[in-house]
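Fold it.
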Amino acid sequence: MERIKIIAISIVVLVVLVLGFYFISSGITKFTGLFVDEDILGDGRLIKCLSEKEVRVYVDKGESNNVLSELDYVDYLPYMDIFNCHNSEDCKGEGVVIEGFTYGLDMSLEELGMVLEC
């Protein structure tokens, strides 16, 4: 009888620990996930920002598609103006121009969101 009691207590403790870890990790994920997703990377918010602000991408390569496809923010390029400056004297180099400031092409999606102040 003593053995059955120990096994039952062990199972109850195990279930309580698993449920505790589940709810704690769920709470942490909910808090940090909402912060990252909505405040920095939220699709609707970032698209709205890109539509409201003038964002231009300048590429100075013959094969600009290769360069553009490797960018971290490639999914958001339809909401930006893209210029290929290859063999053009009008451009001063590659970069992302946001409100008159030029940033590097290799910026991450998070950095783009922070620069746009979305």
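Residues 43-116 form one domain.
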